[in-house]
Amino acid sequence: MKNTTQLADRIREVLLSGKWIAQTNFKEQLSGVSLEDAHEKVGNLNTLAMLAFHTGYYINGIVKVLEGGPLDIRDKHSFDMPPLESQSDWENLLEGFWADAEKFADLVEQMPDEKLDAPFVDEKYGDYRRNIEAMIEHSYYHLGQVSLIKKMLTERTG
After folding, report:
1. How far apart are CA 19 and CA 54, in angstroms?
2. Cβ-Cβ contacts under 8 Å for 30 (sequence gap 6 or more)
3. Pairwise CA distance, residues 98 & 68, whole Å
4. How far is CA 145 from CA 38, 45, 56, 71, 126, in A?
5. What's the number of domains the chain is made of?
6. DSSP β-bridge partners for residue 55
7. Whole-angstrom Cα distance, residue 85 to residue 95?
8. What gap in Å lies between CA 17 and CA 9, rounded to an integer?
């Protein structure tokens, strides 16, 4: 199996359909969540909506690079979520997240293995493999937060 196929499988696993490492994924955790729960604060933690936006922001930025565009994402903007005023706004954010996640996986899967060792935009950012693996790790980190916050919300409301 190609290395890029393995990476694409890991992307789908954490974001869309897997259950191997975390026994869940973003799509399973966030599908069916109400706007009210998505905005609910638990202590000083980020909300489910903010974590979905933040993770999706980085995925979208990497997708643009894989499609030949510039790297124009910035950490300082990664929590600049537009207002979500309706359930429809929340569902649209999630639909965009799922679409970008699938596109990310597809683009990685189509990539020749040799490209994994090529510089990602600029040598200072490392290679493609490092950036793809970092996005997978970043997603698992936030998936853990999403899972815990969702449990806390469920315990609050019974």
Report:
1. 22
2. 38, 48, 52, 94, 97, 146
3. 21
4. 13, 9, 15, 26, 27
5. 1
6. none
7. 16
8. 9
**pTM to 2 decimal places:** 0.94
Report angle CA 84, 100, 132 to the nearest 5 degrees: 120
Structure tokens at 54: 């933040």
Sign of CA dihedral 153, 155, 156, 158: positive
Amino acid identity, residue 62? I
d(CA 68, CA 11): 20
Q: How many CA atoms lie within 13 A of 9 on its CB side?
A: 9
The structure tokens listed for 96 are 């965009």
pLDDT by residue, tens only, the chain of 158 residues: 799 999 999 999 999 998 777 689 999 999 999 999 999 999 999 999 999 999 999 999 999 999 999 999 999 999 999 999 999 999 999 999 999 999 999 999 999 999 999 999 999 999 999 999 999 999 999 999 999 999 999 887 65
**What is the domain range of residue 70?**
3-157
CATH number at residue 119: 1.20.120.450
